[in-house]
Amino acid sequence: MDPQQRTAIETTAKRYFDMAARGDSSALQQASISALTANFSGIETAVKDNQAAFSQAEMTQRSVYLLAAEGNEPLARAEFLCGVFGASGQTSGSSILVFHNLPPGKYAVAVLDAKKAQDARILTMVLQQVGADWKLAGFYARPSLVDGHDAAWFAQRARDFKAKGQTHNAWLYFRQAITLTAPADFVSTLATDKLYDEAQSVQPSDLPVNGSTVELSGGGGNYIITSIFPMAVGNDLDLVVRYQAADVSDTYKTFQANTAMMKALLTKFPEFRDAFIGVVARAVEPSGRDYGSMLPMKEIK
Which CATH architecture has domain 3-69+102-143? Predict the structure, then answer.
């Protein structure tokens, strides 16, 4: 892109970051494309969750991408190869960005780093050109540190777990390292590709992967686990487990089921106690409504 385009994109991204740092969701909503304005609750929540970290943080521009989606119909899978690629694929200066059902248009992706004391976040914004303006089309914020630890630390811990035969912990810690490395789920780099390769070497067959489900029995019940993943909660790393439930309207009954599922999980996979502070169980009914509860490891007996 030419310097004028880059300056316009970076200036717009900085302005939107400042809005988020002030907690001004209304201004961000007004600056968004119409499709996003109509369903803004997710971004409003992300702004609220990250405002304290963004406020008075040192912000730097990491990278900017300029993308053109051509044609007259939305692209079912729009893949953009950015930078220089080598004979064996990605290099240290390349990235691959993949979007699904992307309408035709001109887009930009701006990746910003926000650092404040022991907190560090990555903010990735998708912008769409509307007339002469760059409108907000996506807002993705995630930590780049958990309790002061970066992706390299989690990757090394994953290798340590692998060496001890704790392959489930290793797989989950590699996934956490990928999350801390990638600016957003739709971006891959040479670093994330290498971590994916390591993760695949310990990918378990008895945990849900890529949309699969597994059955867990114990505590007098059977549970269909749909997903399991690490999640940073403050300075803690918890394990989130989602499972199928017929009905979650009775919260007391669902809490009991969540607790029983946690016990069954740790009975089958006691190694999780070495890697996570607590377990978050989320019972999900067919409608999509869910009910979650969290317990520290020491309270799951």
Answer: Roll (3.10)
Q: How far is CA 233 from CA 129, 146, 188, 257, 297, in A?
A: 35, 9, 24, 22, 14
Tell me what pLDDT residue 117 has: 74
pLDDT digits (tens, 9 = 90+) for 93-122: 899 999 999 999 999 999 999 998 778 899
Output the DSSP codes for 159-213. Answer: HHHHHTT-HHHHHHHHHHHHHHHSSSTTEE-HHHHHHHHHHHTT--SSS--TT--
Decide which of 1.20.120, 3.30.310, 1.10.10, 3.30.70 is the CATH code for 214-299: 3.30.70
What single-letter DSSP state applies at residue 118? Answer: T
Who's near 113: CB < 8 A, 6+ residues apart? 59, 60, 62, 120, 121, 122, 123, 144
269-301 confidence digits (pLDDT tens): 999 999 999 999 999 999 999 999 999 999 998
Nearest to 82 by CA among 71, 70, 96, 72: 96
Identity of the amino acid at 41: S
